[in-house]
Amino acid sequence: MTVLPYKDNSDAKKKQVAEMFDSISGKYDFLNHFLSLGIDIRWRKKAIKMLSDLQPKQILDIATGTGDFAIESLKLNPEKVIGVDISEGMLNVGREKMKKKGYSDIIDMQSGDSENLHFDDNKFDAVIVAFGVRNFENLEKGLSEMNRVLRPGGRAIILEFSKPTVFPFKQLYNFYFRWILPKIGKVVSKDNAAYTYLPESVNEFPFGDDFLRILEKTGYKNTKCKPLTLGISSIYVGEK
Fold it and tell me: Which end of the chain, N or C, is less surrounded by CB atoms within 10 Å?
């Protein structure tokens, strides 16, 4: 089932996702940290640490948004980080962030389609993506493209929402995610659909072993899954 942000709109998912993120770009960072109680910051740190042994010099951050994951990857001392996203609104916020932090020389924020990357084969030591693969129009195509631009021996790190399975946390989380989060998101972002789309897309997205099977199908090996915070999100690892 394809989950769309704007159900009364006939545009393809990719275009709708770009429009949605353009709409909420100015409030995205605040809402991200507020609605997750800041836990998303810790998740990114843990995900990046899973690349420390690789010491990647060239990193591609897919669906970079405003660049938080790209910034976190600087702890690995790379030579270059390229962030790509289909939302110009998010990229513009990210570019301003890079200027203020003095990262513009090392982090390059580019407009790009994750399912049709404009990079050569085997270019990057690591490909990272935080909360982005769920928004791909064609999941397998996007994952295959990420694999294509990875060098042999390179590693993909994917941070994505999953589903808690432990009682009673599962029930409490589902209540918050389906009823509280969308209302707060709607009031702050002024976008009626964006934070309704979030729980709906998470609910339909494969997680755990199901997602690992898709990674393997699209060319990754040595795959593994590390659940975080009782399963709210997971870090997926795959190598080329």
Answer: N
